[in-house]
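To the wet lab folks,

You asked to see what we're planning to order before we commit. Fair enough. Below is the target structure as tokens, and below that is the sequence we designed to fit it. If anything looks off to you, flag it before the synthesis order goes out.
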């Protein structure tokens, strides 16, 4: 198992080098940014799909296909799949995704070598806690941790530098959830694994818990689907689990950025006073950043923007 994961890491690193090469060639030879982004994004998307197939990661592929299908039937706002912004999102997803997948495979390989069956000596494993209960406990605490970190992302100038790349989109769809800076992903990945081993759960509980959070907290809430319908009363069950319109409101310029921060369970927003009821018709919502917080309109520009000395603007609605 360890050898397999190390092999997967090497495969991803090789593909990442290819992607970087394509990126440089595109940037140097293209006469227009949009053409360069198109080359990079197309290559990156193909590499991610091939990698997912190689690693048998059918979850991401399946959800992407389902997302495109649902968004074509019950879309909140019309998708513009060939727009420059969509191409930039694909480019960032490809670059950041390759780094994250490589790092994740490497860390899991190390952990499996050191702890073949999980921690084994402390926490939930030592208490002989059933696997299902381990997953539930880990998922709840993991989501609370993410909520706390999300508040920090919107209250700290330093963390906002990286998180604002995610908020820079003016169109939300099934590929938006992965639009994050590699440094942002690195912080979350290490804290996710750290929490699992602090609790003392098995490796199975860690993998299953992260997979559930990825689907219900990272991908589904970003779907461009009008659900629940904003023209009707917000249903009671929408307070229990994050829905596309619950999270989409967080991305609008009409909502304060420190509202609706939960990934999976909105109860955290309710308990800590950051819940905000979506208002108006979802088809009229405007997504993105305020004029004073705009980011470069290129893949490379956005990836390097957090390190610029001029990027010191804090969120307008700090907590």
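Sequence we intend to order:
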């Amino acid at each position: 198992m360890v050898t397999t994961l190390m092999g997967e890491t090497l495969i991803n690193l090789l593909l990442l080098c290819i992607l970087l090469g394509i990126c440089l060639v595109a940037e140097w030879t293209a006469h227009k940014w949009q053409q360069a982004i198109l080359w990079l994004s197309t290559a990156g998307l193909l590499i991610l799909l091939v990698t997912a197939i190689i690693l048998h990661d059918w979850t991401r592929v399946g959800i992407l296909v389902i997302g495109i299908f649902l968004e074509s039937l019950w879309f909140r706002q019309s998708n513009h799949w060939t727009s420059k912004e969509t191409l930039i999102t694909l480019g960032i997803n490809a670059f950041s995704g390759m780094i994250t997948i490589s790092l994740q495979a490497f860390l899991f390989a190390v952990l499996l070598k050191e702890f073949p069956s999980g921690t084994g000596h402390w926490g939930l494993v030592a208490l002989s806690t059933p696997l299902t209960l381990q997953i539930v406990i880990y998922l709840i605490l993991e989501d609370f941790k993410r909520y706390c970190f999300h508040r920090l992302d919107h209250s700290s100038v330093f963390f906002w530098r990286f998180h604002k790349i995610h908020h820079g989109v003016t169109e939300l769809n099934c590929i938006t959830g992965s639009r994050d800076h590699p440094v942002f992903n690195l912080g979350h990945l290490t804290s996710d694994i750290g929490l699992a081993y602090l609790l003392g759960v098995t490796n199975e509980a860690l993998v299953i818990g992260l997979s559930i959070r990825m689907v219900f907290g990272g991908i589904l809430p970003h779907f461009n689907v009008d659900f629940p319908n904003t023209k009707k009363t917000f249903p009671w069950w929408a307070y229990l689990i994050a829905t596309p319109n619950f999270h989409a409101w967080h991305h609008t310029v009409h909502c304060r950025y420190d509202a609706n921060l939960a990934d999976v369970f909105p109860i955290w927003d309710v308990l800590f006073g950051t819940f905000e009821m979506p208002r108006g018709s979802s088809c009229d919502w405007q997504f993105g950043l305020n004029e004073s917080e705009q980011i470069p309109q290129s893949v490379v520009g956005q990836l390097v923007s957090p390190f610029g000395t001029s990027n010191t603007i804090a969120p307008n609605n700090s907590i």
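Structural context that might help your review: Residues 2-307 form one domain. The chain has a mean pLDDT of 78.

Thanks,
Computational group
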